[in-house]
Amino acid sequence: MSGNSSTIVQVPINGVFTGNTFNSLTPTTGGIAMSFYNHDSDFATLGTFTVGTVGSENVFAKDFSYAVYLGDQTGSTLPAPVDFPEYDLGASSGTIMACWNTDINILNNTFDIGSGPQLPPAMNHLERLALENILYHLPDKPCLGELIYFLPVEVYAKVFLQGPYDSLSGLMNDALRAAAPTLIPDSEPYSAINTAFPGAFVEVNNYVVESVSPSVFTVTGDNAIVDWVWLELRDKTNSNTLLATRCALVQRDGDIVDLDGSSAVLFPDSYVDEYYLMVRHRNHLGAMTATAIDFTGAPFIDFTVASQPTYGTTPTSARRLIKTGIYGLWAGNTIPKSSGGFQILYNNSGNDRLPILTVVGTPLNVVPNVYMLEDVNMNGEVKYNGSGNDRVIILGNVGTLDPLNVITQEPNN
Ligand SMILES: [Ca+2]
Ligand SMILES: [Ca+2]
Ligand SMILES: [Ca+2]
Predict the structure, then answer these.
(1) 227-281 confidence digits (pLDDT tens)
(2) Ligand 1 centroid vs 253 CA: distance in angstroms?
(3) Which residues surround ligand 1, an ion (CB under 5 A)?
(4) What are the CA-CA distances from residue 395 to residues 149, 320, 374 (Å)?
(5) Distance CA 371, CA 394 (A)
(6) Gap from CA of 325 to ligand 3 centroid (Å)
(7) pTM for the full predicted model
(8) What is the pLDDT of residues 18-38, one digit of tens each?
């Protein structure tokens, strides 16, 4: 099937490669186990290529230069040298090459990247980096197809924070962002909070450098950024076990977004599976889905409505009713973690009210232009008394009838 026989009826080219064992030249490193080249590119039609299936995986031994290689040579194979040696046979043997732009799924194969044969989903972050080193595909050349060996979790979720929520507009205030200069830090604030309050925000399996371009904070309107939030993926068989964390951003309309300010949040080192999703905030109590969610296909998870039940005594008890039918995270956790864990207290040891008083010094003082845990309503100022003060939200949450009440995060870990 070549260009000089174009009158021949061409059919899509398909291929199935399963159950093979590819032995490298161990102990000599080198060689390519499997490669795909698009030659006779003028008329060829590439169909479906199956490389490994469940139960009939290919086995790629260690020490290959490339386990799977997608060819990126373009144009004439003449003169030599060429990627495709069979066409280096002289003037009459030439053909026209194009990049192999068809994706190939290689999930169902084992690769030995130094610790024995492993399926890609079983690999940790470092092992996947080693696997990436022996693949030649999309990240290397934009014209190429992708070797799909890892389907990361994408979180497409929505949450409201009680503190900045405005029930009239149905949006959160973005005063921290709108301040000039903006009060929201370019880099995630949670590492520093965890230093100040050990165990409050512990990073797990997170290799993402979480800082943003300042331009992210120039967006206004419904999609303006309110603050940084914290996401956790927890083990479907034990919701106390954190498998991965990410810092992300939340927009005024509640959308939780990645570092570009608009995309769903990627967990680049977590394989799609079922996980409990927990969303937390630096001075609010977190909430977690009541059940593990299947992240295949990036489902939308809406923490603002009762129809998305959360883990706890009741399907909504982990959240605060902030408007008819609308839920938000409980505000007022100015001490993110105290002896009782993740709790909001108005009185007694470790209470969340006293830090507000400490910041203002005297009760009628106001401290403006700050990004602080004590700014419960997140308007950029810490205030203890008077209209719009930060203390009264805590009192309202524990209940004015019983200021000794304690609100405990569900789950409290
Ligand atoms: Ca939005
Ligand atoms: Ca607290
Ligand atoms: Ca405030």
Answers:
(1) 999 999 999 999 999 999 999 999 999 999 999 999 999 999 999 999 999 999 9
(2) 5
(3) 223, 251, 253, 255
(4) 51, 14, 14
(5) 18
(6) 25
(7) 0.86
(8) 999 999 776 677 889 999 988
| Count of all residues that appear for the chain in the document | 413
Task: Tell me the CA–centroid distance for residue 269 and ligand 2, in Å.
Answer: 31
Give the closest ligand to the alpha carbon of residue 337.
Answer: 2
Question: Residue 284 Cα, ligand 2 centroid: separation in angstroms?
Answer: 9
Q: At 167, which amino acid appears?
A: S
Q: Give me the amino acid identity at 312.
A: G
Q: Quote the ligand 1 centre to 263 CA distance (angstroms).
A: 10
Tell me how far the alpha carbon of residue 236 lies from the centroid of ligand 2, in angstroms. 27
Q: Where are the domains of the chain?
A: 3-150, 153-328, 343-408
Q: What does the pLDDT look like over 149-167, one tens digit per residue?
A: 988 999 999 999 999 999 9
**Would you state the structure tokens that stand for residue 147, as one six-digit string?**
């070797």
Residue pair 407/396 in contact (Cβ under 8 Å)? The answer is no
Q: What is the dihedral of CA 263, 269, 271, 272, to 10 degrees?
A: -20
Give per-residue pLDDT as tens, 159-216.
999 999 999 999 999 999 999 999 999 999 999 999 999 999 999 999 999 999 999 9
Residues 77 and 84: their CA atoms lie apart, in Å, by: 8
Calculated CA dihedral for residues 248, 250, 256, 259, nearest 10 degrees: -40
DSSP 8-state secondary structure symbol assigned to residue 218: G
